[in-house]
Design a protein that fits this description.
This protein has 441 residues and is mostly beta strands. It has a single domain, classed as YVTN repeat-like/Quinoprotein amine dehydrogenase (Methylamine Dehydrogenase, Chain H, 7 Propeller). 0% of the residues lie in helices and 43% in strands. It has no helices and 38 strands. It is globular. The protein starts with a strand and ends with a strand.
């Protein structure tokens, strides 16, 4: 059900999308520039199969769901090489609503792990270096379908920042030398593993560390050069897996963090709270996306809810006109939403796609299905006037962007895919279950 509030909007929101990304050929973090999932590339190959269109396919050690990051001709990934069972090793104990809790799909803490950062040459797929950031047993379990290498790295032009949840935050230079590392003690995520990725703002790398029922949750910023903690804000927010989004509003950057109980915008430089709104009331797994005037947050389990919030708020904005509109259909449990120009897209884990007017929340289409059933963990990506929806089976469904749902084709790569795509310098990088795959002309 849609609830819209009529307010004055800047027409800039209708221009947000490809144009603001045109000057950056890299894909420097989770979902690319600004965490948008939108690429400005225009000469991307949109049709391939297991025999044609694949420039190279490089084997990857271990297992990981972190997305490729492409900066300055290099591709960065993380992976977990799981070892043997370690006698006596076990995950931290959890409780939920006062009762002992163990998720039926939790696993992994009884084994040793090598958490690695990988660097490959973007042109050829050649492995340039592989560094072990952490080796040993881990603090908590992960979901059987997940990985301890699920958070995507963030990179600037000479530093790479890899986050492994309770096993630490690590900074490497482009030659693979460890610059600094920082561990903040174990992070308890109900035995489901890490998911939130680091983001960059000015001189800082920022990580969102929501845990269990919120008693030890926090968000922190670290100096990119030294690893020194610049600020930390405690959060009474239960475990989440969403990556925060950094947006600029009237000359200052805000870090907006999704959450079940509360959505909070922090001043990116000093960590003070700018505004807050009641949370999504659901597991915060999808990451927010932002336009020039608003931020869009979604969650799909146990119920579906999407909120559009103004960036102009101050203080507690719950119940005010800062809530531009809300919608209770279409959101996925895992896939994040997508904002392309004036079109806002939601996708369920089963691939049902919905499109809303980003300004008003008016529904353009709702729950349109793909021609064949599939499951989705990867988030959608937009490039060259099309949406790329990549299934767990490794098929990328190409749909035209716009107010009308129009399926174009299905492109296979021949192996399972759980990570979201990256697009850089007119190539598409797909992290499969066992290979990194490069699509191009």
């Amino acid at each position: 059900m849609l609830r819209a509030v009529v307010i004055s909007w800047s027409s800039a929101v209708l221009c947000h999308g490809l144009s603001v990304l045109a000057s950056n050929p890299d894909w420097p973090q989770w979902r690319g520039v600004g965490g948008s999932g939108v690429s400005s590339e225009t000469n991307v190959l949109l049709e391939w199969n297991t025999r044609e269109g694949i420039l190279w396919r490089s084997p990857l050690p271990g297992r990981g769901h972190s997305s490729p990051v492409v900066v300055n001709g290099r591709v960065f990934l993380t992976t977990d090489v799981e070892g043997e069972v370690v006698p006596g090793a076990k995950a931290v104990e959890h409780s939920l609503r006062g009762e002992p809790f163990k998720h039926p799909d939790s696993t992994g803490a009884d084994r040793s792990h090598e958490l690695r950062v990988l660097c490959l040459e973007a042109a050829s797929g050649k492995l340039l270096w592989s560094k072990v950031a952490y080796s040993g047993t881990v603090f908590d379990d992960r979901h059987r379908k997940g990985s301890y290498a699920s958070p995507t790295v963030a990179a600037d032009r000479d530093r790479v920042f890899a986050f492994f949840g309770g096993e630490g935050l690590y900074c490497y230079d482009f030659e693979g030398a460890l610059v600094w590392s920082n561990r903040f003690g174990g992070l308890a995520l109900l035995g489901l593993g890490p998911g939130s990725s680091p983001v960059l703002s000015g001189r800082a790398v920022i990580v969102q560390c929501d845990q269990n029922e919120g008693e030890h949750s926090f968000i922190s910023a670290f100096d990119k050069r030294t690893g020194k903690e610049l600020w930390r804000a405690a959060r009474q927010v239960s475990a989440s897996w969403a990556t925060p989004v950094v947006v600029k509003w009237r000359g200052r950057e805000q870090v907006i963090a999704s959450g079940m109980e509360t959505i909070i915008a922090y001043d990116a430089e000093i960590g003070s709270e700018v505004w807050r709104h009641e949370g999504l009331g659901n597991n915060a797994v999808p990451s927010p996306v932002a336009g020039p005037d608003a931020v869009y947050l979604a969650a799909g389990y146990p119920r579906k809810r999407t909120l559009a919030l103004s960036l102009a708020g101050r203080g507690d904005v719950t119940g005010t006109t800062s809530l531009l509109w809300e919608y209770d259909r279409g959101a996925g449990y895992v896939p994040s939403p997508l904002l392309v120009g004036g079109d806002f897209y939601l996708m369920t884990d089963g691939g049902a796609l919905s499109c809303l007017d980003a300004r008003s929340g008016e529904v353009r289409y709702d729950g349109e299905r793909l021609p064949s059933p599939a499951r989705f963990t990867a988030s959608p990506v937009a490039v060259a006037g099309h949406l790329l929806l990549t299934s767990e089976e490794g098929d990328t469904f190409v749909v035209k962007a716009g107010a009308k749902h129009e399926f174009v084709r299905k492109n296979p790569v021949g192996e399972s895919v759980f990570a979201s795509l990256a697009v850089a310098e007119n190539r598409i990088y797909i992290r499969g279950e066992t290979h990194l795959i490069c699509i191009g002309r």
